[in-house]
Design brief:
Layout: H1 2-12, H2 15-33, H3 35-38, E1 42-44, H4 47-64, E2 71-72, E3 79-80, H5 93-105, H6 111-130, H7 135-146, H8 149-156, H9 160-166, H10 168-180, H11 185-201, H12 205-232, H13 236-260, H14 262-272, H15 287-290, H16 331-343, H17 347-363, H18 369-378, H19 392-412, H20 415-438, H21 440-443, H22 446-451, H23 461-498, H24 504-527, H25 529-533, E4 541-543, H26 544-548, H27 555-561, E5 568-572, E6 594-595, H28 605-619, H29 624-628, E7 631-636, E8 646-653, E9 659-665, E10 672-675, E11 677-680, H30 683-690, E12 700-703, E13 719-726, E14 729-736, E15 740-747, E16 752-756, E17 759-761, E18 764-766, E19 770-775, E20 778-786, H31 789-817
Parallel strand pairs: 5-6, 5-7, 11-12
Antiparallel strand pairs: 1-4, 2-3, 7-9, 8-9, 10-15, 13-14, 14-20, 15-19, 16-17, 16-20, 18-19
Length: about 850
């Protein structure tokens, strides 16, 4: 028994044993931080969780009906669901594993998020351990990366795909770094291709882009360093050849990863040219929209003082439109990162510092145009993405790497010399703590007057002062906590330097405890904003039955579902705010109710351009565009002024108890009608014309080009009746007494193909956003079908690339077992 116990202890000190310890520690850390999700059966329910639930509800209905969803007809009058990444089932292999765990082993609802959080920590540990960092320090770094407030916040606030894609950042850097250092090109190359491919398939292309970028920065930094070394050694040819071979190898790996994710990448890339992400003249986002969430350089203070700009929500006092949380790096993590920069200036440490600096500067966005504008204009696909501050997740991984390097350097340092530095640190921390104590009065008095004007949640001066006073109180407490943490950390390091019997593992445990306390004081407000703001309405962790209310019908939805025929709704808070909160609701789609509104960060650019014209027509007193969009019902958050075309039908409250009123628009057009008169005009001229009070969609249609058949103007007895409708097909029976134009109130998109009596015909763009067909006299069966051929072809490419990559991995493993190995070093 003693021998067995001794061998078990020895096993824990082996690489495999330490790996299992690391995995166990990380699982415990996840279980503690997310204990309500793991043990309490609760779920996240922020506004973005609701949006995701809406898209899933629509998609699951389509799958249950035997159709793979590619088009969503319920928001913005219709838009691609697959190409826009709204709902992409069955393409991410990890989901099958997570689904099995939930169904067969009854794992928690949020297993998918917890699993990827675990992968983030594990990947960080493996990366740093492979770089020679003390394994205890690497474990601490892995745990703290999982608890990074930014990562916690994106998962908790409904950005699950972003949180999951982050898991592949450390693995990508690990495998490419191993390739660079000659630790096996084939196996690590195949593994890197899988990592990059899976990252893309997870569906958050911006984080995936940053993953490719991180690998590219590694090649740039170490490749440049190799060339510089070659020039010093007077062997530039060899250095250039080595860097060139590395670039070629990376190109092959990237190509394989893109082939693996072709099923997602190609349709998304195809859609991008029609979305607001490709709407600018350069083919990307509008610069102002892309840079809305830029981090002001002054807000870098939140890296070490999270409450310095009011934290988030109504208390936020910074320069972004709004935010829910600060991008906190932590006092403990930042302290050891500084140690790395001064005490462990290896090329790896310099690389991590370079990445951290680069990501920080890019996050400044419009506030530092010399760098951001250069990337926006010249780096491929960079202009497709918005929210510059999102790149800080790369900075945070780099700083965690620096933290581990600093902790490792401290552990390996001479304790006598360390004791002198620790004593100085202890004295500095003491001074910091005293400053925090004595400055308390300023934050609750002078700061309030200075900050009140920056409060955006209200324009009332008294309320602004109240919010500023609340923020000042949090800042004052924050600085005291920072001082106390710094003092405790310095004391721990001083004890390690002074007590020879104190082991490195003990120090790492103390650092882990302090780092966890440091992050938890921020994470708890992210996970429980109702505590931070003292109001239950802010709660985002809820019992699952509470969240189901969003997906359950209420009196308003029941009333709309009972109405016959095909129609859309126009949700609006009030005539003064027609496109605010209610307009952006995606809840209507849960109940198969089509809306002219909704929310999606990559809506069709043509529809985005149409909305100002829509608003202009309403402002001009014209309901023509309301009629044109088949809006039969207006759902309002307040009573509307009397109007001869609006008939009040229902008043009551929605599922949240908010007052609602439904009005019937008696002039609404059906989904298809026939017009004899037309004009050909450019998009800007069309939008300007249809917003005018005199525009009548019943008599006039604006086309993007001449129709193949010339219609006859004048009154007509033509009729169009909808005969069939699914999410990817709609059919009409049309009777024409003369040649004319069939205008269909469905959003124009090139993947919608039309046939008339079985023969393909050209689809015209009508009134800027709709579809039109030129039809001769007679009876016609008109069918629109969504062309999914690109998705089907892309799926074949992905399957082939995935199988090829797996075969390469297996072959590499077999050859390694036989003693063979690819010796080529980069």
């Amino acid at each position: 028994m003693a021998a067995t116990g001794s061998s078990g202890i020895r096993f824990l000190y082996t690489p495999k044993g330490v790996f299992l310890v690391a995995a166990a520690v990380m699982m415990l850390a996840i279980a503690f931080l997310y204990r309500e999700l793991v043990f309490g059966g609760k779920v996240f329910f922020a506004s973005d969780n609701q949006a995701a639930a809406s898209f899933a509800a629509v998609g699951e209905k389509a799958l249950a009906a035997g159709s793979y969803p590619v088009w969503n007809p319920y928001l913005f009058s219709g838009m691609p669901s697959f190409g826009s990444l709204s709902y992409t089932p069955w393409i991410y292999p990890v989901n099958f594993v997570v689904g099995f765990l939930r169904r067969a082993l009854f794992f928690p609802e949020y297993t998918w998020l917890l699993f990827h959080t675990f992968l983030t920590g594990l990947g960080t540990y493996l990366l740093l351990a492979d770089r020679g960092v003390t394994r205890a320090a690497a474990i601490v770094a892995g745990v703290l990366m999982m608890w990074m407030p930014n990562l916690v916040a994106v998962g908790a606030n409904g950005h699950g795909s972003q949180a999951c894609a982050v898991a592949y950042l450390p693995f990508a850097l690990l495998f490419w770094d191993r390739i660079w250092r000659g630790k096996g090109l084939v196996a690590n190359g195949a593994a890197l291709a899988l990592v990059l491919g899976f990252s893309m398939l997870r569906g958050h292309l911006q984080v995936s882009y940053y993953t490719y970028l991180l690998v590219g920065l590694h090649l740039l930094f170490f490749g440049t360093a190799r060339i510089v070394d070659g020039l010093r050694e007077r062997a530039p040819g060899r250095a250039l050849a080595g860097s060139g071979f590395a670039a070629g190898a990376l190109a092959v790996i990237v190509a394989l990863s893109l082939a693996m994710c072709a099923v997602l990448y190609l349709p998304v890339h195809d859609y991008a040219q029609y979305s607001i992400r490709g709407a600018s003249a350069a083919g990307g986002l509008d610069y102002g929209y892309a840079t809305s969430w830029s981090l002001h350089p002054a807000e870098t203070l939140t890296f070490v003082a999270p409450f310095s700009y009011g934290f988030g929500k109504e208390l936020y006092l910074g320069h972004m439109p709004f935010t829910d949380y600060p991008n906190y790096l932590g006092i403990v993590v930042s302290a050891f990162a500084l140690v790395a920069l001064f005490a462990a200036r290896t090329r790896w440490v310099l690389f991590l510092a370079f990445v951290a600096l680069f990501a920080t500067v890019v996050s400044f966005g419009k506030f530092f145009p010399p760098v951001y504008d250069l990337l926006f204009k010249f780096l491929p696909y960079f202009s497709k993405f918005r929210v510059p501050v999102m790149i800080l997740i790369v900075q945070q991984l780099a700083v965690i790497g620096l933290f581990a390097a600093g902790l490792d350097a401290l552990i390996r340092s001479d304790r006598t010399q360390l004791r002198r530095w620790a004593l100085r640190g202890l004295m500095a921390a003491g001074v910091l703590f005293l400053v925090a104590i004595f400055s308390h009065g300023y934050w609750t008095d002078g700061f309030v007057s200075a900050a009140a004007g920056k409060v955006r949640a209200t324009q009332n001066p008294e309320e602004q002062r109240m919010v500023a006073r609340l923020a000042g109180g949090f800042i004052a407490a924050d600085f005291v906590q920072i001082g106390l943490l710094a003092l405790t950390l310095a004391a721990a390091v001083f004890a390690f330097a002074s007590m020879r019997r104190m082991s490195a593992v003990t120090l790492c445990l103390l650092v882990l405890l302090l780092g966890a306390v440091d992050y938890h004081r921020v994470d708890r407000f992210i996970l429980h904003p109702e505590v931070f703001r003292s109001h239950d309405a802010y709660r985002i962790i809820r019992d699952k039955p509470d969240t189901q209310r969003y997906l359950q019908t209420d009196d308003m939805m029941t009333f709309l579902q009972q109405q016959e025929g095909t129609f859309r709704v126009f949700p609006m808070d009030s005539p003064q705010r027609p496109f605010s909160a209610l307009f952006a609701s995606n809840r209507f789609m849960v109940f198969d109710i089509s809306s002219v509104g909704g929310y999606h960060p990559a809506k069709l650019s043509a529809y985005d351009a149409f909305l100002p014209a829509f608003a202009g027509a309403l402002a001009n007193g014209s309901f023509a565009l309301l009629d044109m969009m088949n809006v039969r019902y207006v759902v309002a958050g307040a009573r509307l002024p009397d109007h001869p075309q609006l008939q009040p039908l229902w008043t009551g409250r929605d599922f949240e108890g908010q007052p609602r009123a439904i009005y019937e628009n008696t002039g609404a057009l059906p989904r298809a009608w026939v017009v004899g008169d037309y004009r050909v005009a450019g998009s800007e001229q069309v939008l300007e014309a249809i917003a005018q009070p005199g525009f009548d969609p019943r008599r006039m249609v604006y086309l993007d080009r001449e129709p193949p058949l010339r219609p006859e103007a004048g009154d007509s007895s033509a009729a169009a009746v909808e005969t069939r409708r699914t999410m990817d097909e709609v059919a009409f029976a049309v009777d024409m007494d003369r040649p004319g134009l069939l205008v269909v109130s469905e959003v124009f998109y090139p993947d919608w193909k039309a046939t008339v009596n079985g023969a393909p015909v050209e689809v015209l763009r009508a009134n800027g956003v709709l579809r039109a067909l030129a039809l001769p006299a007679g009876h016609h069966e008109v069918v629109f079908v969504y062309d999914r051929s690109l998705i089907e072809k892309s799926a074949g490419i992905s399957i082939g690339a995935f199988v090829l990559t797996l075969l390469v991995l297996v072959a590499s493993w077999v050859t390694r077992r036989k003693g063979a190995r690819w010796k080529r070093s980069l």
